[in-house]
Design a protein that fits this description.
With 190 residues, the protein is α/β, with parallel strands linked by helices. It has helices spanning 8-27, 82-94, 111-118, 127-134, 143-154, 159-173, 178-189, and strands at residues 33-48, 51-63, 69-77, 99-105, 123-124.
């Protein structure tokens, strides 16, 4: 692209020069409290020793008490799994992170339990996954209607409007879809 050739020796020298700093960054102590963290993973193709394989790359992004975003860490695993995420959370705890108020996480099964094991008081928020999971309790032909009603309270402009939408939602669905009513109460807490 730039008509510049880079030798393998140069790449090795640059990699070795920053390797120590990267390791220090990965092990640095964290603030004791992050009010909000986001945890997500993406599966990417990685070349290692001339072999290409899929790897899950995990990223934890946190907002500190001043409202500044920080990347708390990145990890790589051969696959996605709640057991690996438990290790990630334990590492964060070992790096002095003691409390998380809210977590926005993706819907990997077993992850909510892993989060509760390490940070038991954390509230999990992810409207996308809560909404998506709520469709497990709704027959196919009613999903569009339920989705529109769910949207009324997670896009409400005020807390009062959200509460009114939740009351309306529960009035319609508590009796017809009892498990869905639990989802409505979950979203109502956010």
């Amino acid at each position: 692209m730039y008509n510049v050739e880079v030798s393998l020796t140069l790449i090795s020298c640059v990699s070795n020069a920053v390797c120590k700093e990267v390791k220090e960054w990965q092990c640095r102590p964290l603030d004791p409290v992050y009010p909000i963290i986001y945890l997500d993973a993406i599966v990417v193709k990685v070349r290692d020793n001339a072999k290409v394989s899929n790897r899950a790359i995990y990223l934890v992004l946190g907002f500190n008490m001043e409202g500044q975003k920080e990347v708390l860490g990145m990890w790589s695993s051969p696959n996605e799994g709640a057991k690996f995420l438990l290790n990630v959370l334990t590492e964060l705890q070992n790096r002095e992170l003691r409390d998380i108020f809210f977590s926005c996480v993706y819907g990997l099964s077993g992850f909510p339990e892993a989060l509760k094991n390490v940070y038991s008081r954390t509230t999990q928020l992810c409207i996308v996954h809560i909404t998506r999971n709520s469709f497990n309790f709704v027959v196919w032909k009613e999903r569009k209607e339920v989705a529109a009603e769910l949207k009324n309270f997670y896009t409400a402009s005020t807390a009062e409007a959200a509460k009114a939408a939740l009351v309306r939602f529960r009035g319609i669905h508590d009796e017809h879809f009892p498990p869905l009513a639990k989802v409505g109460r979950l979203i109502g807490k956010t």
